[in-house]
Automatic annotation (TrEMBL):
Residues 36-47 have a biased composition (Pro residues). Residues 1-23 form the signal peptide. This is DUF839 domain-containing protein. InterPro entries: PhoX, TAT_signal. PROSITE patterns: PROKAR_LIPOPROTEIN (PS51257), TAT (PS51318). Residues 29-60 are annotated as: Disordered.
């Protein structure tokens, strides 16, 4: 390891190079000609103001507090009728991404993390169902230029615990099952724990859904796709033991929709001399010489992938959650680590960045332990890089729930606060994502399931 300078800003320690690393990038994929890869929109050149957008203003509607000058629109609520007439909007809103078509349409693909005991089910639309015994899936909102909802329909049904995922460079969504359920468990008729590809515009392409089995069967959380190589980085939220960071090397990289089904190689990350990423406490630490170890049985026919007899010791982390590609690397999040639950050290969240060019893993941000810092937030989950510089972080912790920003200089600030009363404790934010033109931030509240569109003076 080699150390880099460290500083603490508003209770979060960040690397000295954060202004360069979070300088902003294109926020989302656009559909290229004939569905092929598109270089994406040019990131807006103006930047967000230092230290965020000011104090949050109490919302008289009791939904969402935002800084002065920002406004929200509620696009969708669980329990409402889907505009397609296919049933009601299912709950448990989670990961999400925004896509622009070549003819100017905008689509939001949204996960529903429904478990076997969930009170709602993604409507089982004929032809779009993987397993009639599972309740999860994805819905798609079609928006016009004014961000008004023109359509809302099912894109995938019969999957399990659809948590996060990630967009592809060719303009589709990879939705991840955070499950290891097998046929016969909890009413399932098929095995689960896979990644599925969802087209945001062409529902016919989503018919007869097929899992991308070569990407592994485990408790998938999120993915980030390298647009230069097509390699897919994946996180696993699991315990007993903790989960892993994987990469999938497709046999047909960057070939467009359906190409990931052609097969590939699944590997797990190993950092020499680091068994648990929570051991690293100094932001800016660079873990060099990263190794990728083949997973012997990606389908986990006998043993979960994280417990298999790998040739080399594997590096683990507690609560591996969000992932995002930007600035030439894959960002991955460990939401928290607790020594009392088996972690090597405690923290309230880490954001790592894997740099493929340097083959190194860098600890960009570390939320400290209770004994170290008075934190403005805890338990980062879904993340997105802002086109105006910095990072947007969905909080998934105790108490009040926020979307936090990290500006280009490393200062942390609250951007949004959920004001809705939640009985079951799952009022966290999820699925934060910008529109491809950077004008609108979309974000979900997990429950009561709510999708917001937020606009305002992004450049101060």
């Amino acid at each position: 390891m080699s150390g880099i300078s460290r500083r603490a800003v508003l209770g979060i320690a960040v690397t000295g190079s954060v202004s360069a690393l979070f300088a902003g990038c294109a926020p989302g994929p656009a559909r290229g000609p004939e569905g092929g890869p598109d270089p994406g929109p040019v990131a807006p050149s103006p930047t967000a103001p230092r230290g965020g957008y000011g104090p949050l203003v109490r919302d008289p509607e009791g939904l969402l507090d935002l800084p002065e000058g920002f406004r929200y629109t509620v696009l969708s609520r669980e329990g409402e009728q889907l505009r397609s007439g296919e049933g009601r909007v299912p709950g448990r809103f989670d990961g999400m991404a925004a896509f622009a078509s070549s003819d100017g349409r905008l689509a939001l693909v949204r996960n529903h993390e429904n478990k076997p005991d969930s009170p709602t089910t993604v409507p089982r639309v004929e032809g779009l169902v993987y397993d009639p015994g599972a309740k999860g899936g994805c819905t798609v909102l079609g928006l016009d230029a004014n961000r008004s909802v023109q359509s809302e329909r099912v894109a995938l049904a019969g999957t399990a615990v659809n948590c996060a995922g990630g967009p592809t460079p060719w303009g589709t969504w990879l939705t991840c099952e955070e499950s290891e359920g097998r046929a016969g468990d909890d009413g399932y008729e098929r095995d689960h724990g896979f990644v599925f590809e969802v087209d945001p515009f062409d529902m016919a392409a989503n018919r007869e859904p097929r899992p991308i089995t070569a990407m592994g069967r485990f408790r998938h959380e999120a993915v980030a796709v390298d647009p230069r190589t097509g390699i897919v980085y994946q996180t696993e939220d699991a315990s007993g033991p903790f989960g892993l960071i994987y990469r999938y090397l497709p046999d047909r990289p960057l070939r467009g929709r359906g190409s990931l089904l052609a097969g590939g190689r699944l590997e797990a990350l190993r950092v020499p001399d680091v068994a648990d990423l929570s051991e690293v406490t100094e932001p800016g630490t660079v873990l060099e010489g990263v190794q990728w170890v083949p997973v012997p049985d990606p389908l986990a026919e006998g043993t979960p992938t994280r417990m298999q007899d790998h040739a080399e010791r594997i590096t683990r982390a507690q609560k591996l959650e969000g992932a995002y590609w930007g600035n030439g690397g894959a960002y991955v999040v460990s939401s928290y680590a607790r020594s009392g639950e088996g972690a090597a050290a405690s923290h309230h969240g880490q954001v790592w960045r894997y740099d493929p060019a340097a083959n190194a893993l860098v600890l960009e941000i570390r939320f400290g332990s209770d004994a170290e810092l008075e934190l403005p937030g805890e338990s980062p989950d879904n993340i997105a890089i802002s086109p105006y510089g910095g990072l947007m972080v969905c909080e998934d912790g105790a108490g009040g729930q926020h979307v936090y920003g990290v500006d280009r200089a490393g200062e942390v600030y609250p951007f949004a606060r959920n004001r809705q009363e939640v009985d079951d404790g799952y009022g966290e934010f999820a699925g934060v994502t910008f529109s491809p033109d950077g004008s609108t931030l979309f974000v979900n509240v997990y429950t009561p399931g709510t999708t917001f569109a937020i606009t305002g003076p992004w450049t101060g």
